[in-house]
Amino acid sequence: MQSIILGMIGLFIGTLVILFGGGGAAIYLGILTGLFNLSAASASSTSLVTALPSLIIGAGSYYRQGKINTKIGNQMLLAAIPAVVLGALTAPVIPTNFYKWLIEIILILLGINMLIQKNNHSTTIYRQPHARLKASLFGILGGLMVGVAGMSGGAVILAGLFLLGLKDFQATATSTYVLTFMTITGALFHIAGGQVDWAAGLPLMFGALVGAVIAPKLAQLLAKTKVTAYIKPVTGILLILLGTKSLF
Predict the structure, then answer these.
(1) Closest Cα partner for 73 from 163, 201, 175, 169?
(2) Which one, of 48, 79, 86, lies nearest residue 187 by Cα?
(3) CB atoms within 10 A of CB 199
(4) What is the dihedral of CA 148, 163, 21, 99, to 10 degrees?
(5) What separation, in Å, do the N-terminal and C-terminal C-alpha atoms of the chain show?
(6) What pTM did the predictor assign?
(7) What is the pLDDT of residues 87-116, one digit of tens each?
(8) In whole angstroms, what is the distance from residue 124 CA to residue 224 CA?
(9) How far apart are CA 142 and CA 106, in angstroms?
(10) pLDDT digits (tens, 9 = 90+) for 177-190
(11) Which is nearest to 155 in space by CA: 69, 66, 234?
């Protein structure tokens, strides 16, 4: 019964996070610790490994649809991959509370920026001042979230892509692309640590894989509706909520 429940949870989360450009590791982390009482170390390792296959499938589907902006995605990855490695190596010596508060504050600021920023067209993205530097900074922050905390870093990466000018499902598709390679790097370190709970991870992974197949097809349908106009403001609100939940 537990496996069935985990599979259904994985299906739901896998569909949503691939549809909206996240990795889902933070959500899996909360479920594994809160509902299934895994230790923080085991849950963080399991969450990254669980998210990886669905991210690969989702990124592949979006690539075939031509929605991924590989130029800006690769710019983020150049900064993110070393940050994942650095975060994984230094995680044992970083004070948990300090890192947690820093991330929460950054999430709130990103959410506010997304709500007040005027819409840009993706064709103007490289004309923005310091666009490459901004992309690298978002990549570093997302990479640290993966390496240190076992989170996917999706919230920061997606927010960064919106703030850089990408729109709607191009931003979510590019986010999925970036998160795939970040998660591969982070998962390798966590698997090497031997703390992955495969009994919990495999049912979640299977459900998420099915969701990852559904999500890009659903995105094609939603792209023709007015739903896309709400993705950016809803993401901004969610970032603020995520940031405030641990501050108060």
Answers:
(1) 175
(2) 48
(3) 12
(4) 20
(5) 36
(6) 0.75
(7) 888 877 777 667 667 667 776 776 787 677
(8) 23
(9) 11
(10) 999 999 898 888 87
(11) 234
